[in-house]
From TrEMBL:
UniProt similarity note: Belongs to the glycosyl hydrolase 3 family.
CDD domains: beta-trefoil_FSCN_BglX-like (cd23343), CBM6_xylanase-like (cd04084)
Job of this protein: Catalyzes the hydrolysis of a non-reducing terminal alpha-L-arabinopyranosidic linkage in ginsenoside Rb2 (alpha-L-arabinopyranosyl-(1->6)-alpha-D-glucopyranosyl) to release alpha-D-glucopyranosyl (Rd). It is not able to hydrolyze alpha-L-arabinofuranosyl-(1->6)-alpha-D-glucopyranosyl (Rc).
Protein species of origin: Haloactinopolyspora alba
Domain CBM6, residue spans: 818-942
Protein name: Exo-alpha-(1->6)-L-arabinopyranosidase
Keywords: Hydrolase, Signal
An individual GO BP term: xylan catabolic process
Length: 943
């Protein structure tokens, strides 16, 4: 059959296969779990193997640092090597079970890290589009392989578009004004797609400019203009369209709309495809979809399967012989160590406290709740082994020189009414907790881990396992670590008036109760029915940690977060500080032994203000996988000079951040692009164990044409006595722009190795195409004319030299001619309060406004002959609301006003004439002030 002929072009092979499939078979292939079609000898196929920082959920595999850690390497060559290992190991798993271990990999994630509270912060690379684009392209290129025709694996970008909050994530609207959408959000996705490094994208859960992102016209209008892509839904998102999002009233309508919007594969309800196939069949029967609509989607999917080699005879695919022996191969372990080392960031090093002298450090105490453990996260693979920070230092210095203490309290819970103590089974597998104990021994002792925001985990000393709520409400000590989609190992303590406490399981919301048989369950949601406990401290974690610190010469303190608690998918953080117990631990230990190095191991930035002021040296690492301990030892003891750089701004307080739902980073003054405050640590920050000097940057031309390129060169000299990498960063700043521009923006970077005493010349290309902005009048990118300062340095706030170029052209803001033709209200220049919403269910943007909101159109050509403004509006609410037209500002001179009556539906638009008086001539700013709820689509002036 022609579709099996590898000598034919792929498109011809796809056409042939589509012509052989029945309509029912085509429908079956629209689900994530595609069944085999025996009559054509087509194997089953599954989309969606997770591979964010290693192959996940399939068993033991090489686990690399979290994506945010990979981003902090600023090393695309390393990322490509890591991606190649991930693709190779995916092939190894595929050889074990081709039907379940698929080669369509759902990674990398390119969501902007615009807010450090976002639960999925650990999954992205950075807050910057260029850095994310370079790193994600490299990772994906490694996964896909270097063959021109065959794919080692098929990487997919997540999650398109405007997805950065977990609270009500399927019902909140990410409002992205035109300039922010074009200059920021789309640019995170464009590079990997345009380069062909990825096969496609996954749509996101949120509303994007008023529409479910799965139905966004941007999929067809933008993404598919960059390259051919395969588009998958996120899990259960198709159900949301008629469920939580209430956008369509029947699955037939929603599935038809999803296919037409560009969704090619439905990830819904696990392996059960019946809902998807029934909904698509109903849409076909109702005439809402045609077979050709399905053919278009299947073409995108089949292109991927053909390139993976699904339909080719043996012997052609260069990746087909990769077997399971590659999984966690020794060279992969070495690369994991290299990646964990390169991502480490030296935040502070007062008085050259680091590196530690291997002999002179004396006895070392490893203190802190993360000192002797490694955590996996939700999208992590299963670590085949774990080298903790304590392991790494003991391996190097000897167990006799390295002591340890977690610094957490040990407690016992006594039932207030009976005096019995909560007792845990000592079996390794654990069992139900009871209240049979009359005193405090090992079985009654639990370690209390404070993970912040009032949330705790309890580890029983009886068997070293964590207390977990079973689905039968029984409390058991049977979990190695808090884990799972619904974390059942976390609790809160509420003080009662009589000095007792109520203990509540976070996942269930129920309180602990003791049954007649003495067994503990999460038995009630009513606090009045909860068992009251007395919480007794068996030993103070801080007191014992202080004693351990005082007995040592040097302290390495390891603190941070648990990736399953307070900051993960489905859970945004409320605060950006360390848990209170960890803050107290840092203070006490540092005061007890000032020779302390703090290691912060976290999935996101933390406000460690006291530590920055008082601890001599501070390192940051992500949860860096199986080789974390080796990497930290290599850095702490000076085998490697740390050179990672922060891919995200570290703020001093949550008070510096706007609402997590503020997606206009310019309006919210967030990320290094627009933040005007004094960060704790700036984007790009990171120190080394040596010093670098920079020459004054040299530019090949002082004028940069919009289609041209200029070279920027700088000499970087290692003036210290330690060989080290340095990350050289180039930023630009527009000096004459008529519209708001970032404070500075990353244009290029290079991580270079410079031996002690040597000089390395770094040369960057600056493209005129980079120095553009989105013009809301013409709806296109235009050159930003005028002067541009080029800033070269070691961080966004550590600039070592500047130069400048000039882009030819007018620096004046273009004139708006609203009297010539209607313009979209959503293409405003300035605004307050409004959000971008859907003009209709399928296309177009409007402005959604409430009382007091306004939009401004700048430099509008006016004349005294203008008599009227015509505004296309929809108002779903009953009654009327007033709209005003003002000159210059929202409280400027009133030119006219009119009432907007209810149109009965948010999509029912009518044109409202607004009479205008005494319109001046010349160019002026025109402001629409809204007096109530309405949607405004287009605006035009008339004479």
């Amino acid at each position: 059959m022609p579709f099996r002929n590898p000598d034919l072009p792929v498109d011809e092979r796809i056409d042939d296969l589509l012509g052989r499939l029945t309509l029912e078979e085509k429908v079956s292939l629209m689900h994530q779990w595609q069944p085999a079609i025996p009559r054509l000898d087509i194997p089953a196929f599954r989309t969606g193997t997770e591979a964010l920082h290693g192959v996940a959920w399939l068993g033991e595999a090489t686990v690399f640092p979290q994506a945010i850690g990979l981003g902090s390497t600023w090393n695309p060559e390393l990322l490509e090597d890591v991606g190649s290992v991930v693709g190779t190991e995916a092939r190894g798993f595929n050889a074990i079970d081709p039907d379940y271990h698929g080669l369509n990999l759902w990674a990398p994630v390119v969501d902007p890290l615009r807010d450090p509270r976002a639960g999925r912060n650990e999954e992205g690379y950075s807050e910057d589009a260029l850095l994310t684009g370079v790193m994600s392209t490299a990772y994906a290129q490694g996964m896909r392989g270097d063959h021109p025709d065959y794919l080692k694996s098929s990487p997919m970008l997540k999650h398109f578009i405007g997805y950065n909050n977990e609270v009500d994530r399927s019902t909140t609207n990410s409002s992205m004004p035109a300039r922010m959408l074009q200059e920021y959000y789309l640019e995170f996705f464009r590079p990997a797609i345009e380069s062909g490094a990825v096969s496609g994208i996954m749509a996101s859960y949120n509303f994007a400019n008023g529409r479910p992102a799965h139905l966004s016209p941007l999929i067809e209008d933008e993404v598919r203009s960059w390259n051919d892509v395969f588009v998958v839904s996120d899990a259960y998102a198709p159900t949301n369209v008629t469920g939580s999002q209430n956008y369509y009233d029947t699955p037939a309508k929603s599935h038809a709309a999803l296919v037409k919007a560009g969704i090619d594969s439905f990830t819904d309800r696990g392996e059960d495809s019946s809902f998807t196939t029934a909904s698509i069949t109903a849409a076909l029967d109702a005439g809402l979809l045609t077979e050709s609509d399905l053919d278009r989607s299947l073409r995108n999917m089949l292109r991927v399967r053909f390139r993976l080699g699904d339909f080719d005879p043996p012997g052609l695919n260069p990746y087909e012989d990769i077997g399971p022996e590659v999984i966690n191969a020794p060279e992969h372990q070495q690369l994991a160590r290299e990646a964990a080392t390169e991502q480490t960031v030296l935040l502070k090093n007062e008085g050259d406290a680091l590196p530690l002298d291997e002999d002179g450090a004396g006895d070392v105490a490893v203190i802190g709740p993360l000192g002797d453990t490694l955590y996996e996260d939700w999208y992590s693979g299963t670590m085949p082994y774990k080298v903790t920070p304590l392991d790494g230092l003991r391996e190097r210095l000897g167990a006799d020189r390295v002591s340890a203490h977690e610094g957490v309290d040990e407690i016992a819970l006594r039932v207030a009414e009976t005096g019995d103590y909560v007792t845990a089974p000592t079996d390794e597998s654990g069992g139900q907790l009871t209240t049979s104990g009359s005193g405090v021994g090992t079985a009654e002792t639990m370690s209390l881990f404070d993970w912040g925001q009032g949330v705790y985990a309890l580890r029983t000393e009886a068997n070293g396992k964590y207390v977990s709520r079973g689905w039968d409400d029984v409390l058991r000590n049977d979990q190695v670590q808090p884990n799972g989609w619904q974390v059942r190992e976390t609790f809160t303590f509420t003080d009662a008036e009589d000095g007792t406490v109520l203990v509540r399981n976070v996942q269930s919301g129920n309180y602990l109760t003791v049954g007649a048989d003495g067994g503990l369950t999460t038995g009630t949601a009513d606090a009045a029915e909860a068992t009251r406990f007395v919480r007794e401290t068996v030993s103070s974690g801080i007191d014992e940690a202080v004693a351990t610190a005082e007995a040592a010469d040097t302290v390495v303190m390891v603190v941070g977060n648990n990736p399953y608690i307070n900051g993960r998918e489905t859970d945004d953080r409320e605060d950006i500080r360390l848990p209170a117990a960890q803050r107290e631990l840092i203070r006490a230990v540092t005061r007890a032994n000032p020779d302390t190095t703090l290691v912060v191991e976290s999935s996101y930035p933390l406000a460690i203000n006291w530590a920055d002021e008082n601890v001599p040296s501070i390192l940051w690492t992500s949860h860096a996988g199986q080789e974390t301990g080796h990497a930290l030892a290599d850095v702490l003891l000076g085998d490697v000079s740390p050179a990672g750089r922060l891919p995200q701004t570290w703020y001093r307080s949550v008070d510096e951040l706007p609402s997590i739902l503020e997606y206009d980073i310019a309006r919210g003054d967030t990320t290094y692009l627009y933040y005007d405050g004094d960060p704790l640590y700036a984007f790009g920050h990171g120190l080394t164990y040596t010093d670098f000097t920079y020459s004054q940057p040299r530019v090949s031309s002082s004028t940069l044409d919009p289609d041209g390129t200029a070279e920027v060169s700088v000499d970087v000299t290692n003036t210290g006595d330690v060989d080290s990498d340095e990350v050289v960063q180039l930023y630009s700043r527009a000096l004459d722009s008529p519209v708001e521009q970032p404070n500075r923006e990353l244009r290029a970077f290079e991580r270079v190795h410079v031996p002690a005493g040597a000089t390395h010349t770094v040369t960057f290309d600056v493209s005129g195409a980079d120095l553009r902005h989105w013009d809301v009048v013409s709806d296109r990118l235009v050159p930003t004319a005028g002067r541009h300062e080029l800033l070269v340095g070691s961080a966004s706030d550590d600039i070592r030299g500047t130069a400048s170029v000039r882009v030819p052209g007018s620096v004046q803001q273009p004139t708006r001619h609203l009297a010539r033709e209607a313009e979209n209200v959503a293409d405003f220049d300035d605004y307050q309060g409004v959000e971008i919403v859907d003009r209709s269910k399928t296309a177009g943007d409007s402005v959604g406004a409430h009382a007091g909101d306004w939009v401004a159109f700048e430099q509008v050509a006016l004349s005294r002959s203008i008599r009227e403004l015509r505004l296309e509006v929809a108002r779903e609410a009953s009654g009327t609301a007033r709209v005003q037209v003002r000159l210059g500002s929202a409280d400027g001179r009133l030119l006219g006003s009119a009432d907007v009556a209810s149109t009965g539906d948010r999509y029912a638009y009518e044109t409202v004439p607004v009479p205008l008086d005494e319109v001046p001539g010349g160019r002026h700013d025109l402001v629409l002030v809204f007096g109530g709820e309405m949607r405004a689509s287009t605006v035009r002036l008339s004479r």
